[in-house]
Amino acid sequence: MRFTCAALAFAAALSTADAAYKGFNYGAFFGNNAAKQYVDFKYEFEAAKELPGTNGQFNSARLYTMIQWGTTKDVITAIQAAIDTKTTLLLGIWTSATTTAAAQTGVNNELAAFQAAIDKFGSSFTNLIAGISVGSEDLYRITPTALKNGEKNPGAQPADLAKYVDQVKAFRNKNTLLKGKLVGHVDTWTAYVNGSNKAVIDKLEWIGVDAYPFWETEHANAIGNGKTLFYDAYNQVKAIAQSKPIWITETGWPVSGPTTGQAVASTANAKTYWNSVACQLMKDNVNLWYYTLQDVQYSNPSPSFGVKPGGDLKAVKPLFDLTCPNSAKFVSAPSLVIGNQYTAQLSSTRSTLFVFHVDPEPGQTCNLVFTLPPPFDPRYVAPYTIVSSGGIDVSRLERPVDGRASAKSVGGAKTIGSVPQLLLGNKYTIASGPCEAGQDVGYRIDSAGGLDMQFFQMTSPALGLFMEVA
Ligand SMILES: *[C@@H]1O[C@H](CO)[C@@H](O)[C@H](O)[C@H]1NC(C)=O
C-alpha cells in the first residue's frame, strides 16, 4: 500500500493564495554594535534554511535598512548574501532620526543605497523582493507607552511618515524592475488602531504588524492567553486595514528573561507560542517574519527571543522543536501520514490528498485542473522538484479528509482522470462537472508512469491542483 499524504493546505476552491513568505528579522549589526558583513548574513540565511523541522521554508529575511551599518549609504551586504542563498527580502527603509531634517536625509540615503543595489544587481536582486517597508515602529516610539517603557530612540510623526511613504512609492514607480513590489510600513498593532495615525494607513499597500502578547501587561498575558491576545490584536488591525493585506513582521515569545505581568519567559512557553501562533499563521498562509533566529551573538539580551542560543549559529541546536503540530513526520509505517500541509509529494510510495471547499453558489460548472508553470530561471529556487518525469492519476475521495488523515483512515476513492505525462508550462483539465456548491470535496493524486516529484501548491505562478469555475 502506498503512503498517503496529509490533506494539503485546504486550498479554498476558486480563490487560492500565493505561498506565504516565512522568515526571520535580521538586524544590521551584532549585539556588540559590530556591523554584520556579507559572510555573517550569508551564514544566518543558510542557518535559517537548515533549521530542523521547518522543511527549508524559513527562506525570507526582513531587513531594517538598505544601508551597511557604519556607512553613510553603502548597500547593505545582506543583499549579496540573499542573492547567493536565494533568500527573499522584506526590505526596510529607516525613517527615524532626532530631527525631521535628519530623518529626510536618512531616507534619501536609504533610497540612494536602494538605487545602487538595483544598478549593481538588477533583477537578481529585485526578483527576491517580498515587499518594501517604510519605517519600523516609528509611530510606537512617539507614544507615551514607549516613553514609559524607557524608549530612547526617536520615532516619526504620522505626517512625516506618510510623506516618506509617498517618496518610496514614487521611487518604486520610476524603477521598472520594482513593478508590482508593494510598499508598506511596520509598526506595533497599537499604532494602527490609534485613529491619529490614519493618514499613514491610507497610504499603505500592506500593513506590517508587530505584536507581542509577552509585553501586554495591561492584559492577563500568561502564555495560555498568548494566542487569544495575538489574534485580538490581529483582528483589531484587520478592522481598520481597509482590506489591505496584513503581514506579521514581528512576533515571538522569549526563551529567557524576566517575567512581564503574567508572561513567563521560558523555552517551554516559546514552544507553546510557536505552536499556537506561528504554526497557525503558516497554516493560514499569512506572511510571517518571526522574531527571531538568534539575538545573543556577542551580547546577552534579557529577555532573549532567539530560537537558537548563542554560539556558532549552524552548530547550535534550536532551543525547542520547530515542527508544527499538524505537520506529520516522515515515517516508514504505511499506516502513517506523510506530508506537512503545504508540500505535495508524488512518487511510487507517496500520494497526496487535496481538499477544496467549494463556494456556495449553485448552478455553475467547475473544472478540476492541474497546472505546471514554465521552467524557472535556474538561478532561483523553483517551488517544485522533479526527480523523474511521469504522469498522474487523480481520484475523487468518497469523503473529504482533515489534516489528521492517515492512509488507513482515508477511505475509498474512484479514479476520475489522469495525465500520462506531465510537461512544464501546461494546464491539464482532469474533470469537469456541476460545482458542488457549499461542499468540501477531496481528491487524491497518485504518481503514474514513474513520476517522482514534490511541489508547493501556489497561485503565482499557478502550480498544483485547482478547482476553477468554467
Ligand atoms: C496616537 O498617535 C499619535 C500620533 O502618532 C501619538 O502622538 C499619540 O501618542 C498616540 N496615542 C497613544 C495613546 O498611543
From TrEMBL:
Cellular localisation: Cell envelope
GO terms classed as biological process: cell wall organization
GO cellular component terms, semicolon-separated: cell surface; extracellular region; fungal-type cell wall
Enzyme class: hydrolase
Enzyme Commission (EC) number: 3.2.1.39
Extent of the signal sequence: 1-19
Keywords noted in UniProt: Hydrolase, Signal
Boundaries of every Ubiquitin 3 binding protein But2 C-terminal domain copy: 332-461
Membrane-traversing stretches: none
The keyword Hydrolase is assigned to this record: yes
Molecular function per GO: glucan endo-1,3-beta-D-glucosidase activity
Any matching Pfam family: But2
Catalytic activity: Hydrolysis of (1->3)-beta-D-glucosidic linkages in (1->3)-beta-D-glucans
Keyword Hydrolase: yes
Annotated family: Belongs to the glycosyl hydrolase 17 family.
Protein name per its UniProtKB record: glucan endo-1,3-beta-D-glucosidase
Organism whose genome encodes this protein: Lentithecium fluviatile CBS 122367
